[in-house]
Design goal:
The chain is an alpha/beta fold. It folds into three domains: 237 residues, Rossmann fold (3-Layer(aba) Sandwich), CATH 3.40.50.10490; 186 residues, Rossmann fold (3-Layer(aba) Sandwich), CATH 3.40.50.10490; 32 residues, no CATH class. Strands 1-2-10-9-7-8 form a six-stranded mixed β-sheet, with helices on both faces.
Length: 525
């Protein structure tokens, strides 16, 4: 690690000081002023990569701002951290791991370690296509009509985003996702399914995740009550590195689909964790998904910072969050097929960069992650968009839309796209009505617009990888580890003793917990 990357506080750099001065220089300029001052602003602040367009022209920044932000990225040695990731160096030092999800979609030797991943991927794809063709059947000899994916976190969010975005009803098994340990989730997913035609995927790297294994054991009981214990071998698959534990569960080695230790959970869609998506869309489409992600990998690995889409998104988010004091970002996909994207990005960004210390263990001088929420348009327009337009607490917005619809209903898509563009325009320009203050929308509220030519596997892969690399670049600027999640473990560790207390086997030390447990026991008695 170089002296630059060891720097614990980027806020003390000259680049940061220049950005603070620049913020004051442009503070009085509104977005309307910026468009008047630069009649080429719309094109100057837009970048396209193979049918994916990022437009920052409605952000409260200028080309000078971006130049200074790129100086900040260079001061933080973002390029060196990026290059170390692609080289397979252990840039996750707290767990002593490389971060090589990019190798899972490596088609050109970019990482040099893609061979093993390619073999694992081909085995998974061959199995998915055999299931879809009816060549692999259940215990009764019937083809599988339904797939239940049991996972949580990255073993749930990424595959669900991709499957929802790409799947259709033509010659595909229906895929259902279960994550919550609340039994309502599993019982709802299984309701109406036929055990004889249901395939169950248990997605857990260690095959020990408490929520996942609780659901898996209940699903096993559901299946065996109808088909017997022997049916487990044909109706369950494990997406895991723990073949021994899967075998004890009753899943044979041929139905265990492993992946490398350097695959992090929220970056694992591209591995065997993506089997549910491959089952839904087919092997060829899944490979196109990987190809799109790889195209973004190549772009991120080689493009200059000032033209690098993930870096541009990263520094824009940092500018809004820190220099403009906008800690919250609304992710607004104007396409129902992307309805799970906001939740996926909540995990990807807030779990990756929701950290309080640098790599050296010193406090971070600012929030490295935005608070993210969102919903699809036009639904969000009739709920929280009121706050976006007139609320005193400003929120940055990110609109995502697709040029081509995913349906053949006349007129719908034009109305949808018109609404999206109108919302971005209204946030930027507002409406002046001094005589009726209740109608006044001040505008000057920043947004990014991301457009896709089509929502096909290739461009979805590009979009998802765009956000993955954005997260990595932001983490590099703050000198944090974007690839561990020890905060997630604390609540899990405490849940065991609390469960024991709930059963009456112990007494918790925490008085608030003890009071809540007493109330719960009283109501349940």
């Amino acid at each position: 690690m170089t002296a630059k990357t060891a720097m614990s506080d980027i806020t003390k750099s000259n680049a940061w000081t220049r950005l603070e001065a620049h913020r004051e220089e442009i503070a009085s300029a509104t977005l309307s002023d910026m468009f008047i001052a630069d009649d080429e602003r719309a094109s100057r602040l837009s970048w396209e990569l193979d049918g994916l367009n990022v437009d920052l022209s409605r952000q409260r920044l200028t080309t000078d701002t971006l130049d200074l932000l790129m100086d900040l990225a260079r001061a933080a040695d973002v390029e060196a951290r990026r290059d170390a990731m692609f080289a397979g160096q252990p840039i996750n030092p707290t767990e002593d791991r490389a971060v090589l999800h990019v190798a899972l979609r490596d088609e050109t030797g970019l990482t040099g370690v893609g061979a093993e991943a390619k073999i694992q991927r081909q085995t998974m794809i061959d199995f998915a296509d055999a299931i879809r063709a009816g060549a692999e059947t259940g215990a009764t000899g019937q083809a599988f009509c339904d797939v239940v994916n049991i996972g949580i976190g990255g073993s749930h969010q990424g595959p669900m985003v991709a499957t929802t975005a790409l799947a259709n009803s033509v010659n595909t098994p229906r895929v259902h996702y279960v994550a919550n340990v609340d039994g309502t989730d599993l019982s709802t997913a299984l309701r109406g399914l036929d055990p004889a035609t249901t395939l169950i995927l248990v997605a857990s790297k260690t095959f020990t995740t408490a929520e996942t294994m609780t659901n898996a054991n209940s699903a096993r009981a559901w299946l065996t009550s109808a088909l017997g214990d022997d049916a487990v071998a044909q109706h369950f698959c494990a997406l895991s590195t723990n073949e021994a534990a899967a075998g004890e569960f009753g899943i044979p080695a041929a139905r265990v689909f492993p992946f490398a230790d350097w695959v992090g959970g929220r970056f694992s869609l591209w591995s065997s964790i993506g089997l549910s998506t491959a089952l839904a869309v087919g092997g060829a489409a899944f490979e196109q998904l990987l190809s799109g992600a790889h195209a973004m990998d190549r772009h991120f690995s080689s493009s200059p910072l000032g033209e690098n889409l993930p870096v541009l998104l990263a520094v824009t988010d940092l500018w809004n969050r820190i220099f403009l004091d906008l800690p919250v970002r609304a992710v607004l996909p104007y396409d129902e097929r992307l309805r799970h994207l906001p939740a996926h990005l909540q995990q990807l960004e807030m779990e990756s960069n929701g950290k309080g210390v640098t790599l050296s263990g010193e406090p971070v001088s600012g929030p490295p992650a935005s608070v993210i929420f969102g919903a699809t348009g036009t639904n969000g327009q009739h709920s929280f968009h009121q706050l976006l337009h007139q609320g005193p607490a400003l929120v940055a917005a990110e609109f995502i839309a697709v040029a081509m619809p995913g349906h053949d209903l006349a007129g719908h898509h034009d109305i949808l796209l018109a609404n999206m563009l109108a919302q971005a325009q209204a946030l930027a320009n507002g409406t002046a009505d001094p005589e009726t203050p209740h109608h006044h929308c001040p505008g000057n509220r920043p947004s990014t617009v991301i457009l896709l030519k089509t929502l096909d596997p290739y461009r979805l892969g590009m979009l998802l990888a765009l956000y993955e690399h954005k997260v990595m670049a932001e983490g590099a600027i703050w000198n944090i580890n974007s690839f561990d999640q020890f905060g997630v473990q604390l609540g899990k560790a405490l849940s065991g003793p609390v469960l024991s207390a709930l059963k009456g086997d112990s007494t918790p030390n925490d008085p608030a917990t003890a009071a809540a447990l007493a109330k719960l026991r009283a109501w349940r008695s």
